[in-house]
Amino acid sequence: MVITVALDKSADDARPWIEAARPTHPSLIDTAHVVADLYNMVNVPTVVWIDEAGRIVRPNDVAFGSDTFRHITGIDAAKHQGLLRAWVRGEARAPGADDVRRLQSLPTEADQQARAEFALADWLARRGRAEAAERHFVRAGELAPHDFNIRRGSMPIRGLDSMGPKFREMIQEWVGGGRPYYKPLED
Amino acid sequence: MTTDKKDGLTLIDDGRAGEIRARVAGGRVLVAADALGAGGAAEVDLTEVAGRLGRPLALDVEERAAWLGVSAAARARALASLEAPDFALPDLAGRVHRLSEHRGKKVFLVAYASW
After folding, report:
1. Backbone CA torsion sign across A59, A60, A62, A64
2. Over its length of 187 residues, how does chain A's per-residue pLDDT go in tens digits?
3. Residue A45 in contact with partner chain B when CB distance is under 8 A
4. What is d(CA B67, CA B56) in angstroms, rounded to the nearest whole number?
5. What ipTM does the predicted assembly reach?
6. What residues in B contact A4, CB-CB < 8 Å?
7. What residues in B contact A3, CB-CB < 8 Å?
8. Chain B residues within 8 A of A56 when measuring between CB atoms
9. All residues at 6 or more sequence positions from B5 whose CB lies less than 8 Å from its CB, including other chains
10. Phi first, then psi: what are they for A75, rounded to 5°?
11. Do A5 and B114 touch (CB under 8 A)?
12. Distance between B49 CA and the closest CA of chain A, angstroms
């Protein structure tokens, strides 16, 4: 069973993609980044495997549905799909609890402070307090520079183009420092 | 000197907004202890209270607004338990779905965005 969650500022931002895909699975809208906070997700796409008992059996990973952006991401969609198919069919076991914990990335106090700053900024922005909101969006990004759900995800709320010069500048600075934009699990 | 507006603050506690009595003094936000359900002193420093709880507090004194988030320790504990944190979110039609409704099935959870 697939459940998708759009970390978008409004349902209308996600609507064209959902309507074009015509999914039969629950396709949810998370304007407040609730799931990002609960699961410590710091970028999109992020995928999690949850078993029949409601337990995480593969923590946050990067996976794409197709190879459309492979030339940019360097991530082969088929690899994760193969692992996922084998798990769903029961042909392969998911990682054990110790492996899951080893692969998990847990939030720090700075990460949670950044999420609080982002949430306050979003709350202010929705009340037309753009200038005040900006202070907290900036602080959130400084506290958690690796959190692109905050740094890039806030761009549409701040009236910035999330694929424009500000984004390119941000990603060049990040990747130029030897840090990956996508961090798939190593296994 | 205080005005009516300056005697209040919107405190958003993990997503739920409420108005509480508060005043700013020397850059600190002093909140009526009873507004936070705390006993003792008549007023407490909001930042200190959040710190004692280990919870992140984002504060905008000018806007009279504060967001109290969930502590890193609480989030880390929940994730390390490996029990998938439950959530309830709407679809495009406004129908709310809960992760835990799907117990008994393997779930492939995908977070994405249009940006």
Report:
1. positive
2. 999 999 999 999 999 999 999 999 999 999 999 999 999 999 999 999 999 999 999 999 999 989 998 988 889 999 999 999 999 999 998 889 999 999 999 999 999 999 999 999 999 999 999 999 999 999 999 999 999 999 999 999 999 999 999 999 999 999 999 999 999 998 6
3. yes
4. 8
5. 0.97
6. 110-112
7. 97, 99, 102, 107-110
8. 79, 82-84
9. B64
10. -105, 125
11. no
12. 15
DSSP A51-118: -TTSBEEEEEE---SSSTTHHHH---HHHHHHHHHHHHTTSSPPPPHHHHHHH--PPPHHHHHHHHHH
What whole-number distance in Å separates Cα of residue A155 and Cα of residue A126?
A: 14
A103–B contact, CB cutoff 8 A: no
| Residues from chain B contacting residue A163 (CB–CB below 8 Å) | 115
CB contact under 8 A, A14 and B76: no
Residue A148 CB burial class (10 angstroms; 0-12, 13-18, ≥19): buried
Q: What DSSP element (H or E) covers B74? A: helix B72-80
Q: What is the pLDDT of residues B16-59, one digit of tens each?
A: 999 999 999 888 999 988 767 666 668 899 999 999 999 999 99
Select the residue from A120, A158, A162, A170 to test the B interface by mutation, using most B Cβ atoms within 10 A: A120
CA atoms of A39 and B81, how far apart (whole Å):
12
